[in-house]
Specification:
The chain has four helices and no strands. It has helices spanning 3-26, 32-51, 62-79, 88-118. α1 packs antiparallel against α2, α1 packs parallel to α3 (62-79) and α2 (32-51) packs parallel to α4 (88-118).
């Protein structure tokens, strides 16, 4: 994957999942705090990627991919019609797992960004 793709692909994922989460919250299907936590992490990680872009690219790792998968599964479970929808506890557990993995991977990206920035040689060297 190109460096552009490493930035553009996660941005597209964030835009799509973010829009779905906002719509679910606006419809009263999902608490706003869930959308807020996820969106805060997504915007924060995007900002981190741009903060370290001169030192290198932080590509999506397995945790980030798992986060996206859990978010998509949870969103799909919320979008199913009532006749096909599993019990509410199932979708809530998937969304809870998505939130936990979202926060944990967000912390991991912060650590990666700090390490990448601290590996930058001092000016003039």
């Amino acid at each position: 994957m190109t460096d552009f793709g490493k930035i553009a692909d996660p941005l597209a994922d964030k835009a799509l999942t973010g829009a779905a989460l906002v719509c679910l919250s606006a419809l009263g299907e999902l608490p706003w705090w869930v959308t807020g936590v996820i969106m805060f992490r997504e915007i924060g990680v995007t900002a981190l990627r741009f903060w370290v872009i001169r030192q290198g690219v932080i590509a999506a790792n397995r945790g980030g991919k798992l986060k996206t998968l859990l978010q998509i599964i949870a969103i799909c479970l919320y979008l199913l019609p009532a006749t096909l929808s599993p019990p509410a506890i199932v979708r809530e557990l998937f969304m809870a797992a998505a939130v936990v993995v979202t926060v944990v991977t967000g912390v991991d990206y912060v650590i990666q960004a700090i390490r990448l920035r601290s590996s930058e040689p001092a000016a003039g060297q």
